[in-house]
Amino acid sequence: MVCRAVEDCPGPVVEQQFGEFPSWTQAHSCATKLNEGLDLDLRAVRQIVTSSILASACVVQEALKSRDSWEGTRVEIETRAAQLRFVLSELALALTFCRTAAGLSGAPVLRVLLQAREALRHSAQFLKSFNGSYQDMEQVAASAETVKVAYEEVTLSTSLGK
Prior knowledge:
The chain is an all-alpha fold. The chain is about 70% helix and about 0% strand. It has helices at about 25-35, 40-65, 75-100, 105-130, 135-155, and strands spanning about 5, 15.
C-alpha cells in the first residue's frame, strides 16, 4: 500500500487510489515515483513520515491521558456495555464449543479447547478491569465457571485428559 503523510500532522494515511501491491518493493517503487513528482528527496520523505508518526503518537498519548475525563460519560457506559456483551457472547460460544467437542476427535477438539481456554482467559482479564455493576460481574463469573466445568469435562472424556 502507498500512504500519504503530511509533516507534523497525524498519519500516515493509506491512499486507496493506488491499491495494494504484491510486494514492498513494488509499493516503494510507486511511492518513490510519486515523491519525485512532488520534488521530494529521500531525506525530506523520511522527515515528513517521521514527523507524521510522532504527531500520531502525541494524539494517542493525549487520548489516553483524557481517559479519566470519560468516567461516567455516555461513552464509558456504552463501552462498558459493549465489552460486557462481547465477553458474555464469547463465553456462550465457548460453552457451545465444549458441548459439541464430544462428537469430535483430533485437531478439531484441540481448536475447540483452545477457543474455550481463550474465552476463559479473556473473561478473567475482563473481571480484573471491569468497573461495572456487581450483577454484571457475577453474571460473567457464573458463565466462566460453567465454561470451565464443561472444558474440564471435555478434557477428561478425551485422550487429552489421560
